[in-house]
Amino acid sequence: MRPYEREIHHLLPPGADPEPVTAPTGWYFARFSRDLRRGQVVPVTYMSYEYALFRTDSGQVGMVESQCCHMGAHLARGGYVREESLTCGFHAWEFDVTGRCVKIPGGCRIPSRAVQRSLTVVEHSGCLWFWHGPGPARPFTELDHAQDRRRYLHVSGEVHVCRSDLLTVSEHVTDVAHWPCAHGAPGPMAYVPLRDEGRHFSFMIQPVDANVTRVQRFRPYARVTMASPTLALVTAQSQPQEDPRPPLLTVIAAVSPVGPGLTVAMWAVVVRKLGPDWLLWPVNRLWAAFLRRLVRRNAASDVDVLRWRRPVAKDLWSAADGPSVRAYRSFYRRNLPPDGGA
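Predicted structure:
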């Protein structure tokens, strides 16, 4: 277990019945890819349910309900991966990445109900993401450029446990007013909406003073695209207009609900290489490490706030807050499933 998972384990009440979590439809962070080896299974808790997250010998990833449908054994605590299946440690029933039982020892007929609840999982940009919501999972296309491993490096960041609800933590990325205080912006920042309809929400954060050239050593214009309601992709630009070139740096910031009042917030980076690895392998790694350090320093400004922030009983706005957070809340709520996401 990772340190943040041990913290979650101590905070969750043992044996408690799961309370529904309200969450919008979309992709959610499960774990960094590097933290799930081939042949490994780990317990993870999201949306108030515990799952067994595993990687088969061929590299496929599955995320199934942790309690075995046969006789209730825990598939992540005593279970193990055997080739392409997750095997229960009690009676050796085997399940594939979709949760379907594919083998029972002794050649017994497999009952039709021998199926584990499962979530769709994709591996993208150095992270494992699971789909939450009705219907088939939407393709994860917002970061397609990062799949070109010849040109991009995926660099894992950090995961922090926050004792608050999903919306309260996830909306911080749209809070333009906190930039001068928390991120060292030399003056007020403006929120410029780009697209706000249906499942789409994107905007630009830029200095009000056009003479500002750097914000914490980054280019002053930040384009934010919400790939999902709680998954933000942030790219720095030198101009307010959309830059058609592949981004030099993309910061991934995502929030996933563990249970009521308990979430995890993560960040990672995708870095464009300075040249081909056959020529610049060490330079590319040093460059990525340097950018990761800058992002980590920037993210540290928010960590303590997010870990302990709570929703207020009644909103209290000032003119300096601007419309960005309220616009995001509207986007968040319109993407909630009809059943509330439980």
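Summary: The helical segments are 3-11, 166-170, 179-182, 277-308, 324-334.
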